Amino acid sequence: MSDPVPLTTDHPGQVASATPPAPGRSRHLSDRWLAVAFISPALLLLLAMSVFPLLWALYLSFTDYSATRGGPAHFIWFGNYTAILASAQVHLRALTTLIYVVGAVALQTALGFSIAYLISRRTHGRGLLTTLFLVPMMLSPVVVGLFWRFMLDAQFGVINSMLGSLGLGQVEWLTRQRTALISLIVVDTWQWTPFIMLIALAGLTAVPKYLYEAASIDRASEWFRFRTITLPLVWPLLLIAVLFRAIEAFRLFDLVYILTSGGPGVSTETLSFHVYKVAFLGFNTGTASAYGILMVLVVIVLTQLYLRYLNKLKED
Amino acid sequence: MAVSVDEAVSTGPARDHTPSARRLGGRGRSVLEVALLTVLAVVMLFPVLWMIETSIKENRDVYAIPAKFFGFKVTLDHFKDVFAASGGGRSALSVSFLNSIVVAGVSTALATVLGVPAAWAYSRFSVKAKKDQLFFILSTRFMPPVVVVIPIFLMYRQVGLIDNKLGLILIYTAFNVPFTIWMMKGFVDEVPAEYEDAAMLDGYTRLQAFWKFTLPLLLPGIAATAVFALIFSWNEFVFAIFLTSSDSVRTAPPAIAGLIGGTTVDWGLVAAASVVFALPVLVFAYLVRKHLVAGVTLGAVRR
């Protein structure tokens, strides 16, 4: 794992060996000092603001500490963890999160890749089209959530108004159990389809033209070309985009908070929204910490997967 | 040039050999594809257009049933409400916009100052377990904010950083440093190390070589990276809503979200505030469009 990142790393060593020994060694020492001086401030900040809080959360997760009640924390060891893992409430949230993540990411991938494929086949106006499609992705989840809430409003929302003028019935998008989760998936898809599109487009435009030319000389069918040339070459990059989106969707909080606040009932409560409720409405800090640590474990597994594929892509 | 012209000419006749029926089919397909793209573009852009439309409608038209797409009276009252309070003076929203500028600006500057030298060091020197360090740095960025905010909240309560701009600046800096390091490392890798070696042969120290020769070449990359960090901090919501509460400290995202707290919601005002909030992001995003792929993947994917 610790072998150096390609290309640039071995330069200083080579240079040092090419120079006379005495100055080379002193320069090498000062290089090391410089590296430490330049890297450690950033690492110290990360240790203080990311690692230390997580370690604290780890400690709290073994206690019955409550942020409002105060008082000393009593160790209950794995009590919080067993309570969470056995809780039917948590199982339901996990299922909701799974439906949401799989549904949203699958829709985004299918749509985003299709749009990228269509754009890549155009010769004119590619830049303009790409820019227009990217707008939703750059908006804050707050703006996106608020605005869709307005558009999906059952009474005066524009979506129901359009359905009405088409002669279709009204839908209570955000206030019915089943449609609320679908609405959440649709809104997330609207915002993040451009992300997949952008990365798929980067992959598609990198496919060398001569491959297609060779295939058309061989009179290969369109589908055959897509399956044997386009997909294998774009797939590694697309996989990274999908994993990235899966991690983001798993930790999503703001869109749920604004669009549905987990309701109606608990139908759109994802795991991260439930953690918030346990921590900031129930003030069971110890339980919430254990809950959080379990979520971090899931994120770490997903991140490892992501980094592994990223590494593979860079080595190719 | 000559070669490319030859190629263009040689492919021309080759296409003509294909049966005309197939060509017609190809054209029909092309029309279909353009139509499909247009429909998709309209669907993707409609919410944005609707937001802009709502922000310039009178309240009467905002709540009209059926919805009015055209032929409404244009008013800028909602935009006035975003900046000016009803009794005169500054509105709470405009204060939150100023807070957002301060918090996003300072945290981006700090992240740049901390991140750029670290990226340079990671790119140029052989550091122990470099790959592991870089992966660790990126993985801190993937932590779920809702989870991180619990211990951060307790930590800040101990040191009095709750409801304090400095607290937000610190956490945003910590979230932007990993991004800055990964993004900038890519830019530093593109500048040949030989430039510094040549400068050092001329008698400069390593530090001077970095400052005088490499840094100026990195400036466009630094600018692009800073713009992304600025957008991330500007759009951030989770930390902002949990770590701040008073109007004088709150940034724009929680302030705008706070507009829908009451029993009646002034959607015209929400739309106008959203437009004011989103406009700078779109402008900035357009400026860095060349680096978007790297930017949105936190510097991990470079094409």
UniProtKB/TrEMBL annotation, chain A:
Protein name (database record): Sugar ABC transporter permease
Highest taxon above the source species: Bacteria
Domain ABC transmembrane type-1, residue spans: 94-306
Chief location bin: membrane
Gene3D superfamilies xref list: MalF N-terminal region-like, MetI-like
Signal sequence, start to end: none
Residues passing through the membrane, by range: 33-62, 74-92, 98-120, 127-148, 181-204, 224-244, 288-307
UniProtKB/TrEMBL annotation, chain B:
Membrane-protein topology: Multi-pass membrane protein
Region (Disordered): 1-23
GO biological process: transmembrane transport
Localization, UniProt: Cell membrane
Coiled coil start-end: none
Gene3D superfamilies reported for this sequence: MetI-like
Annotated TM spans: 31-52, 97-122, 134-156, 168-188, 209-234, 267-288
Keywords: Cell membrane, Membrane, Transmembrane, Transmembrane helix, Transport
GO cellular component: plasma membrane
Domain ABC transmembrane type-1: start-end pairs: 97-288
PANTHER family, A to Z: ABC TRANSPORTER PERMEASE PROTEIN (PTHR32243:SF52), MALTOSE TRANSPORT SYSTEM PERMEASE-RELATED (PTHR32243)
Family membership noted in the UniProt record: Belongs to the binding-protein-dependent transport system permease family.
Name recorded for this polypeptide: Carbohydrate ABC transporter permease
Organism of provenance: Microbispora oryzae
Organism classification: Bacteria, Bacillati, Actinomycetota, Actinomycetes, Streptosporangiales
